[in-house]
Design a protein that fits this description.
The mean pLDDT is 96. The radius of gyration is 21 Å and the shape is globular. The protein has 12 helices and 22 strands. Strands 1, 2, 3, 4, 5, 10, 11, 14, 15, 16, 17, 18, 21 and 22 form a 14-stranded mixed sheet that branches. Strands 6-9-7-8 form a 4-stranded antiparallel sheet, sandwiched between helices. Among the domains are: 2-98, Rossmann fold (3-Layer(aba) Sandwich); 129-186, Dna Ligase, domain 1 (2-Layer Sandwich). 28% of the residues lie in helices and 29% in strands. A hairpin with a 3-residue loop joins β12 (221-223) and β13 (227-230). Bound molecules: adenosine monophosphate (AMP) and glycine. Residues 218, 232-233, 291, 295-296, 298 line the site of glycine (GLY).
Length: 426
């Protein structure tokens, strides 16, 4: 089968790496890909927002399946575009329709969906310019801290946790009246603050059946001890040590099952990943957010632990046969540590040569490229999050130590990584 995988991060390298191991021997194209994906298939220079160019490529190469890595093409309707085009409608699409992608693309949509299906989540109200004054009054009487969320996609920056009322009202004004996040913050969700520990679960659904993949926890802050600015993710661990079978059973019963039943009841066209960000408050799970794709760097720990053939899962998803799949997992811990460009998530330089990559892979560690690019016979940095090293171990500490050992053999100018991934499990 000929597959086109859309995206260029560590997530896409992990997906391509896993697909390449399939006994079904898929031919893999990655657009635009990175220096790592080029080892798993053929990189193609395509813009993810140019659906016509993606169409022309799929027709020319007789692509049979498209796997959409990031959320943006999904929120812009790439699945609908393929479904509605006679030349493309036979192609298997892994990802939800535009309507389904609102679970990530609109916080207000996701909150209303959870309300309709009794899925536990923080209490909330929704405001825009039409009820702005009511919003200010509401904020003034809200308990602290107050969580403000831009309704739409805001590159991971749209959630602001305010410690006092003055700050909350100032942010609220910036978002609604001054377009702080453009269109995305025309509507704002004001949410109760939930105090607990976070983790994420990953589900694959064909719109009716589902399978649950290994859970993971990511580390979003740039600094050790979870200090400093938010990033796309500096590392991840799976499984999550504080999660036991009883808690996972509760998550399945209270959150996963009602979510998939909700998708089915509302006739939402959804064949793809559902990434559910959770917070565990005492022993109870609450949904913080849905994403309509896999996480990055969570994919880099989830897929290495998955023993199943990913190709088989994708085909079963496309054909509505996920009930036939039984997930099998490696019991070991997988941890990943992300190497980033100095200065990220603020300003940084790129184009530095990465040395030592060829010495890195061994039986227990895998290097997944993120922002890397080939330049003649070298590999150079091409963005903020450059690559990550995933290792297996008998504990979080053991796996992280192995990744750090591999990282000590790789270098580029101003390379930085968090040395404390998984610190709370040491
Ligand atoms: P998101 O962009 O939706 O992933 O949210 C970013 C981060 O904000 C989450 O990872 C949580 O740490 C935090 N967060 C979001 N909603 C809440 C909430 N209701 N209570 C506490 N923390 C939250
Ligand atoms: N690592 C968080 C995300 O992919 O959204």
């Amino acid at each position: 089968m000929k597959i086109l995988l859309l995206g260029s991060g560590g997530r896409e390298h992990a997906i391509a790496w896993k697909l390449k191991q399939s006994p079904l021997k898929p031919v893999i194209f990655i657009a635009p890909g990175n220096a790592g994906t080029a080892e798993c298939g053929q990189n193609v220079s395509l813009s993810l927002s140019n659906f016509e160019a993606i169409k022309a490529f799929c027709v020319k190469e007789e692509i049979e399946m498209v796997v959409v890595g990031p959320e943006e093409p999904l929120v812009k309707g790439i699945v609908d575009f393929f479904r509605d085009d006679e030349a493309l409608s036979h192609i298997y699409m892994i990802g939800p329709s535009q309507f389904g992608a609102q679970l990530e693309g609109s916080k207000a949509f996701a909150k209303a969906f959870m309300g309709r299906h009794n899925i536990p989540t923080a209490g909330y109200r929704e405001f825009d310019a039409s009820n702005y004054e009511e919003g200010v009054h509401y904020l003034n009487h809200h308990s602290l801290p107050i969580v403000l969320k831009a309704d739409g996609l805001a590159a991971g920056k749209g959630v602001i946790i305010c410690q006092n009322h003055v700050e909350a009202i100032a942010e609220f004004e910036l978002m609604i009246q001054r377009n702080k996040f453009g269109e995305a913050s025309k509507t704002v969700v004001v949410e109760e603050f939930l105090d607990g520990i976070e983790l994420s679960v990953f589900v694959m659904t064909d719109g009716k059946n589902y399978v649950v993949l290994p859970e993971a926890k990511d580390y979003k802050r740039i600094g050790e001890g979870d200090k400093g600015l938010n990033t796309g993710g500096m590392g991840a661990v799976s499984p999550v040590p504080f999660v036991d079978d009883d808690f996972l059973a509760l998550v399945e019963e209270q959150i996963i099952r009602p979510t998939i039943e909700g998708i089915q009841k509302e006739n939402i066209e959804y064949k793809g990943f559902v990434f559910i960000g959770l917070i565990k408050v005492n022993e109870e799970p609450f949904v913080i957010e849905y994403n309509c794709r896999m996480g990055d760097p969570e994919t880099e720990v989830v897929l290495p632990r998955l023993k199943n053939d990913l190709m088989e899962i994708f085909i079963a998803t496309a054909q509505g046969r996920l009930n036939e799949i039984k997930i099998e997992c490696d019991e070991r811990y997988a941890c990943t540590v992300m190497a980033v460009s100095g200065g990220y998530p603020g300003e940084y330089e790129k184009g530095f040569e990465i040395e030592g990559l060829e010495t890195a892979n061994d039986d227990e560690s895998i290097v997944f490229h993120a922002a890397t690019r080939k330049a003649y016979d070298t590999v150079i940095t091409n963005g903020g999050r450059v690559f990550c090293v995933t290792s297996f171990g008998d504990s979080v500490v053991d796996a992280v130590a192995k990744s750090k050992k591999v990282l000590s053999r790789i270098s580029f100018e101003n390379m930085y990584f968090r040395g404390d991934i998984g610190y709370e499990f040491a």
